[in-house]
Amino acid sequence: MHNKGEYGTACNHYISALYHLANKIGLDGDGLLTSANIAKEVIDKPDTRVKTEYLSAFQKACWDNSQEESMGLSPARLELGTYYMMGKLTVNQPTLQKALELGARFYNLVTRFEFISLDIRPENTMLSVNRVTPAVDSGHLFAEICLLAWHRYASWLIADSLPLTETCFNYPSPQHAREYSYLFPGRHKFDCSTLSIAFPTQYLSRPVKQNEGSLKSFMHHCPLELFRQYKADYSVSAQVKRILKSTISNGNTSIEDVAKQLYMTTRTVMRRLKDEGASFQEIKDIVRRDKSTSLLTLYSLPIKEVAEKVGFSDPAVFTRAFRGWTGLSPRQYRDNFNRNLDE
Q1: Is 107's pLDDT higher than 50?
Q2: Alpha-carbon distance 325 to 179, whole Å?
Q3: Are 333 and 296 in contact (CB under 8 A)?
Q4: The dihedral of CA 23, 25, 26, 28: what is its sign?
Q5: Residue 206: which of 161, 165, 162, 158 has the closest Cα?
Q6: pLDDT-wise least confident of 31-45, 71-85, 233-247
Q7: The pTM is what?
Q8: Boundary (domain end) residue, out of 167, 199, 227
Q9: Is 226 exposed, middle or buried (CB count within 10 Å of its CB: 0-12, 13-18, 19+)?
Q10: Average pLDDT score over residue span 182-203
Q11: 158 and 297 both lie in a single domain
Q12: What is the gyration radius of the CA atoms in the chain, in angstroms?
């Protein structure tokens, strides 16, 4: 099982690109925003992050109203429910390899071309999404959702985080590329000839640990499940994140401290995190970023107090770190948020 509610925030790019696409294909973008509890004022405000739960609700509303899972961005129409039918076909397969091979075959039959290809090699396996081009998918929405959908589903099938050795994008590095360190942990390559994810081939032999009952739950929570890294409750990443959340105001919490609480050596924690496609500093940054953006937008706390609440004794050091996470200083972030609300 996974940890409920630990979804964090998403960059503005996704909600804005989805909103414009919805209007482009004839949907009521404003009405769909309202149904997802999102204020229109956040659209096209790149400095304002959005709760992932709201983004997910908006994405689902767009799918439901368009009755098409690619919203016109795929070369072939993907009727609402296609992803679920793929799950119904594959969830009872004995291994991850059998499930992925059957899933790819299903999509290729539906689209009538090689939409999904699986290249199995001794060390790494590459799963590619074909004929999704930046010329049509200019915001890269469908490209990213496809990669997320396959990676998250594969991780869910084996009840573990499938580590990515490399993610290739068939377009230049976008402005929101910093989000990829969370969405697609591992090495990133841009301007590639393929749109693909690669992972250790040894994972193909992992047994499928899900069933049709758990599939219904997984699909019920889509697309929210796609925006999170799947972590089993016993994953080290999830445990580290929980510890850091509870000790966030203590800026001195180190990986050694966390290792002691997990009854592991520091080296073991580092290795396990690496196997799961994460790092201690990355998790710590995500926890601090999400907490600080929440404090800055929900409360009128002095910057110094916000810094202290996320473990920084020096506001200047906090400001530098925050700028690295969001591209803005804490004051600029708050001012932009307040200005957007007033417009």
Answers
A1: yes
A2: 10
A3: yes
A4: negative
A5: 158
A6: 233-247
A7: 0.69
A8: 227
A9: buried
A10: 94
A11: no
A12: 20
